[in-house]
Write a structure and sequence with these properties.
This is DoxX-like protein. Keywords: Membrane, Transmembrane, Transmembrane helix. With about 425 residues, the chain is of the alpha+beta class. The chain folds into two domains: about 15-295, no CATH class; about 310-410, Lipocalin (Beta Barrel), CATH 2.40.128.280. About 50% of the residues lie in helices and about 15% in strands. It has helices spanning about 15-30, 40-50, 50-60, 80-105, 110-140, 150, 160-170, 170-190, 195-215, 220-235, 240-245, 265-295, 415; strands at about 310-315, 320, 330-335, 340-345, 350-360, 365-370, 375-385, 390-395, 400-410. The chain has an eight-stranded antiparallel beta barrel with strand order 1-3-4-5-6-7-8-9. α5 packs antiparallel against α8 (about 170-190) and α5 crosses α10 (about 220-235). The radius of gyration is 28 Å and the shape is elongated. The relative contact order is 0.08. The model has no long low-confidence stretch (mean pLDDT about 90).
Length: about 425
């Protein structure tokens, strides 16, 4: 008969203290970092977290004596000063709460039920996060293919994060590979029997995310580190079994995975139904939402008519042809038109200027302006000559401009034209 590892009836003091601390820490972390997947949770979380945009800066100034005020909160970056102060805040609260709890509940024999439900919460939190991480890769939304501007950018001018985004965005297949791994991890964590496998996969997947974030300076270091710690916590119960299996070549007996049932049957049925409704909702909302987003601004989005890279030929100002001298800080060298209504002008001295780009195909007009000065606009009329030549004309202030452009074929880039080869007689490392 196979022996099953059951939940202990008496916990050691350090184990009880650890449970109290991690329960408080993880619960507070989830409060400050909700998944935002379920309907209206973002709105509710916004109201609940808003007061801390005042409390945390006040504590920073008066308790930590930090001279620099905290004015930036969690945004596209999850590693702001505010976020680090939140980690310090919730860790301090967790320590204080653990001390008080340990004094008030020092006679407790075990926390088997609390441990079980904490694991359920972590399974769902990590699982939901992994599903959202995974689907934006499977749909190829998180990492776009290299844009015209990115293709012209030198490696040396790219930020570490930009380099990582280009590396990931280049390969659709690699996006599928990493995305499927993350989706698989998320799905496995929703079921008790596959929790250990899901947590092992989560440790590997979240560990890879964490490594990229640390090594390429991606500002999601705190969240990815927390996902790794949560995966380790989920594996803690099976640590002895895993060590036996992977390292000691010993038998790993089955673990106790029976759920903690409520006394009334309808409660258990309700929870089960809610679980599957939530899982179906998560799958549909992630897939549908990401497909819609991809059609708006991802690789599947409709590209502007003038999308691409244009080399500047004749550049005439007030009927005077401006020579293409590299010392000229005004003359255009290239026009790069990207998705989402943006363009970049590269000048002769290699400096760049970003513009909003609005094209009207019916009226044959192009409007370009910077958000720093929306009143100063290039109101071009254009003429297309063949498939790859363009003439722009406009009045800009007191000057008249006449610019000839020729479209550059982006397939000339090695990154685009190299493709995949089963056979390589020699390494093609350029």
């Amino acid at each position: 008969m196979t022996e099953t590892i059951t939940a202990p009836l008496h916990w050691s003091g350090p184990k009880k203290i650890a449970l109290r601390f991690f329960l408080l820490l993880f619960t507070l972390h989830i409060f400050f970092n909700p998944n935002g997947v379920l309907p209206y949770t973002d709105v509710i979380a916004g109201y609940l977290i808003e007061p801390f945009h005042t409390i945390i800066p006040w504590l920073s100034k008066h308790l930590l004596n930090r001279a620099e005020p905290v004015t930036t909160f969690t945004n596209g970056s999850g590693d702001t000063t505010y976020d680090y102060l939140v980690i310090l805040f919730i860790t301090t609260l967790s320590v204080i709460g653990t001390l008080i709890w340990s004094v008030l509940d020092r006679k407790a024999r075990d926390y088997n039920k609390l441990f079980y439900w904490l694991c359920v919460i972590l399974r769902y939190y990590v699982g939901i996060t992994m599903l959202s991480y995974g689907f934006v890769k499977v749909i190829k939304l998180q990492f776009p293919s290299p844009s015209p501007g990115r293709l012209l950018q030198s490696f040396g001018d790219a930020s570490p994060m930009g380099l990582a985004w280009t590396y990931m965005g280049y390969s659709t297949g690699f996006n599928y590979f990493t995305g499927i791994a993350e989706v698989s991890c998320g799905l496995l964590l929703f079921f008790r029997k596959t929790t250990t496998l899901g947590a092992v996969l989560g440790l590997v997947v979240a560990g890879n995310i964490m490594a990229i974030n640390y090594c390429f300076d991606v500002p999601v270091k705190l969240l990815s580190t927390t996902l790794v710690i949560m995966s380790l916590f989920l594996l803690a119960k099976d640590a002895h079994r895993l060590i036996n299996f992977f390292f000691l070549n010993k038998t790993a007996p089955p673990s106790e995975i029976e759920p903690h049932r409520f006394g009334r049957k309808w409660k258990n049925i309700t929870l089960c139904v809610l679980k599957y409704v939530m899982l179906v909702y998560l799958l549909i909302s992630n897939i549908y939402g990401d497909i819609q987003a991809a059609a708006q601004y991802g690789d599947a989005a409709k590209k502007p008519h003038f999308y691409g890279i244009y080399d500047i030929g004749n550049y005439v100002v007030n009927k005077d042809t401006i020579a293409p001298l590299t010392t000229n800080t005004v003359r255009w060298r290239k026009l790069i038109v990207s998705n989402s209504g943006y363009a970049m002008v590269k000048k002769m001295n290699d400096s760049t200027q970003n513009y909003a780009f609005r094209e009207n195909i019916k009226a044959h007009t192009i409007v370009m302006f910077t958000y720093a000065d929306t009143s100063a606009k290039y109101n071009f009329t254009y003429t297309e000559i063949g498939k790859d030549s363009l003439v722009l004309k406009c009045k800009f202030g007191l000057d008249s401009l006449h610019i000839n452009l020729k479209k550059f074929d982006m397939k000339n880039f090695k990154l685009i034209n190299r493709g995949f080869h089963w056979v390589n007689e020699f390494p093609y490392n350029r």
